[in-house]
Design a protein that fits this description.
The chain is built from three helices and no strands. The chain is mostly helical. The longest helix is centred in the N-terminal third of the chain and has 21 residues. It is elongated.
Length: 92
């Protein structure tokens, strides 16, 4: 999960941190039922809401410099099945 923080996004980062901890808690709680959990928490995504940030050369360079792919995530990369994998049978 993306964990970058910056001024003015305290509520957003707190919520994202909560989702991360909830995912971990669910993993521990549901493991006895052979249910596994995963969290998907992409970083910066190209959206109209983020357009002012994308168009800011300094901020754009910061995002691209700290991202392994060196770019913003395209929304099309988040499309597809992400949930409901059947659990594996228990290992004897």
């Amino acid at each position: 999960m993306c964990e970058a923080s910056r001024p003015t996004v305290g509520a957003y980062t707190a919520a994202k941190g909560g989702v991360k901890q909830l995912t971990k808690s669910m993993a521990v709680e549901w493991a006895k039922h052979n249910i596994q959990t995963n969290g998907i928490g992409p970083g910066y995504i190209v959206t109209e809401m983020n357009r002012p940030l994308i168009d800011d050369p300094k901020f754009n360079a910061w995002v691209c410099g700290r991202t392994p792919a060196g770019r913003w995530t395209d929304p099309s990369e988040l499309v597809g099945r992400r949930f409901f994998w059947p659990p594996r049978p228990p290992i004897p």
